[in-house]
Amino acid sequence: MNSYFYKFMINLLKRFSSERKLLETRGAFIIRQLCLLLNAENIFHSMADILLREEDLKFASTMVHTLNTILLTSSELFQLRNQLKDLRTPESRNLFCCLYRSWCHNPVTTVSLCFLTQNYKHAYDLIQKFGDLEVTVDFLTEVDKLVQLIECPIFTYLRLQLLDVKNNPYLIKALYGLLMLLPQSSAFQLLSHRLQCVPNPELMQTADGTKPSTGFKRATSSNIDYTELLQHFEKVQNKHLEARHQRAGRAEQLDRRVVL
C-alpha cells in the first residue's frame, strides 16, 4: 500500500464521516466497486487500520458494521473470505488481527468475524463478556441480524460443523450464548430450532468406535495472542460506554436548559 492509496482511504472515510447519508445509501456500493478494481485485502486492511485511530466512536461502530456486512455477504469478497476462513498463512493471520482490533468497535461484528475465521472458543469468550456490556435495543437488533446471517449460505460450513459435536463444543456453546442473549423473538425461535438439530454425539460414532474425522486442524491459531485481543476488546468497549454516557449527559443538560 503506497502513501497515495492510504491517503485516498483516509479521505474516503472522512467523506463517509461527514456525509452519513452517502454512507447509508452508496457506501456499500462504493466499497464493493473498489474491491473489484483494487486489492480487497488492502482496502479492508487500510480501513481497519485507520478506524483503529478514529475518535468518533459512533461513526467507527457504524463503519465497522458496514464493512462487516460487505465482507460476509458480497460476492466480490469471496476470495478474501476464503483467505480468512482457515488462517493458514501469516498474511491471513495478520489481516485477522488487524480487522479484529477495529471490529471491537462493534461487539456483535467481532463475534461474526470469529465465526467466519472458525475461532469458536474466542467467540464464546467474547459472548461471555457481553454480560458486562450495556445491552441496548440496537445491540439486540444486531444479534438478531447475526442469527439471520448464520442461516445464510456463507455459513454453511459452520452449520455442518454442528454435526461434529465432540470437536466443536465451543461453537455450540457460543450459539447457545447468543440464544440466551435474545428475547423470545423470531430470531430466538430460528436459532433454537437450529440447535435442536444438533445430534447426540453418541449417535455420531463410526462403526469401529472411532471419532469421525475433523478435517483441517487449526494449529496455526496458536500464533495469535487471543488473551491480548480479548483485553483490547474490553478496552475499546469501555471507551464506547464512556462516550455513550457523555452523550446522554449532554442531552440531559440540554433538556434541562430547554425546561428552564
Automatic annotation (TrEMBL):
<feature type="domain" description="Vacuolar protein 14 C-terminal Fig4-binding">
    <location>
        <begin position="20"/>
        <end position="198"/>
    </location>
</feature>
<protein>
    <submittedName>
        <fullName>VAC14 protein</fullName>
    </submittedName>
</protein>
<dbReference type="InterPro" id="IPR026825">
    <property type="entry name" value="Vac14"/>
</dbReference>
<dbReference type="InterPro" id="IPR021841">
    <property type="entry name" value="VAC14_Fig4p-bd"/>
</dbReference>
<dbReference type="GO" id="GO:0010008">
    <property type="term" value="C:endosome membrane"/>
</dbReference>
<dbReference type="Pfam" id="PF11916">
    <property type="entry name" value="Vac14_Fig4_bd"/>
</dbReference>
<keyword id="KW-0472">Membrane</keyword>
<keyword id="KW-0677">Repeat</keyword>
<dbReference type="GO" id="GO:0070772">
    <property type="term" value="C:PAS complex"/>
</dbReference>
<dbReference type="GO" id="GO:0006661">
    <property type="term" value="P:phosphatidylinositol biosynthetic process"/>
</dbReference>
